[in-house]
Amino acid sequence: MRRGSGGMRGPGLRGAVPLLGCLLAAASSTRPECSIMQEIEEERSQCLAELTWDNRTSGCRRQWDNITCWPEAEVGEVVVRPCPKYFRFLTSYLGNVTRNCTSQGWSDVYPAPYAVACGYDSNSTPGEEQTAFYGTVKTGYTIGHTLSLIALTAAMIILCLFRKLHCTRNYIHMHLFMSFIMRAIAVFIKDVILFESGESEHCFVSSVGCKAMMVFFQYCVMANFFWLLVEGLYLHTLLVISFFSERKYFWWYILIGWGAPSVFITAWTIVRIYFFDVGCWEEIVESPFWWIIKTPILVSILVNFILFICIIRILVQKLHSPDVGHNETSQYSRLAKSTLLLIPLFGIHYIMFAFFPDNFKAEVKLVFELVVGSFQGFVVAVLYCFLNGEVQAELKRKWRRWHLERFLGSDMKYHHPSLGSNGTNFSTQISMLTKCSPKTRRCSGFQAEFSLV
Prior knowledge:
There is one protein chain. This protein is mainly α and 453 residues long. It is 63% helix and 4% strand. Strands 3-4-5 form a 3-stranded antiparallel sheet, with no helix packed on it. It has a two-stranded antiparallel ribbon with strand order 1-2. The chain is elongated.
């Protein structure tokens, strides 16, 4: 009996596509099943295009059965076709499928179903393990970005509220914190749109909003790397240049941190619109245009690593200077602490896999960059805000001042109503008690950066 051009779905493929999506997740940030569906769509379009030229009146016409394209055949002819290409993701064995052209039309596929004929065995394929692994990775980086988002938001509030903490060094920290916050938010939005919706329409016809989300996501990631670079440039400048205009340099830092990524992302967006407008723009592995984004990020990682080595070298020289004590154990301890402090601030952990191929130790790379990297914002907020000596001193001062105002204010108002009604003198006295000289407040940016050491 002749089948229609879309009449046979192919048993077993429905279970194979979700599994195939899990296996592809390691290779790309795209919604995994899109790669499979795009291959199927390409073969379907080619088959249907050739079908329009098939004027055969006898035998079996060309047919697309939603999996394989069957060519025209004469009655009694046996047609053997190789398994579809996308089964290579599921198994190393690719068999053949066969159909007979009868007087009643095409026969059923033999051996059936497609999954069995093409070597897919649900019991032997490590689908559940792969699914569990990628689910664990997603849970891990979701927890990491959530903790980072909470810690960074609290750190931003602290640095914004207390005016005595306003300086170039902390302004740069605040911009870095904001880049981490934007990156975490972008990750959450991307996951909801690409992985939680349960739909796959964006694989072929994507909305402008979906593409705009991917542009925002790529911008946030690149901006985060560039602000890590700015931290390295600023700290290196503090150590190398004795006197420089922090205000003048700060605007250059702004231009590097937020401006440079916008240039590269704009170029990438224009190229995608005119030359590779496929899906939701989440496919990155097979696209040569991905290097527009990847190259600046790799350069920033490399430059930051070089700055890290230079700063460690300067620290070693300072620790061995005559002005520093000669306790060798103490010197190495301070050097170790300084190095550990700089690793999250500079993003040094990214150098481990930055210049290896994408498929090199894919699972280890996923854990290291996605899970471990998601906690970077949390670690930076803790080290450079909550454990910072200046921040702790300012918080303690404000806390003591609030208690002093509360205690003295209520006590004086109870015993001396006239003084309680006039708060001008009292607030002046409190401000005099807490005021310190400008010389006392001034400190080296380098010393403040390593107040934990």
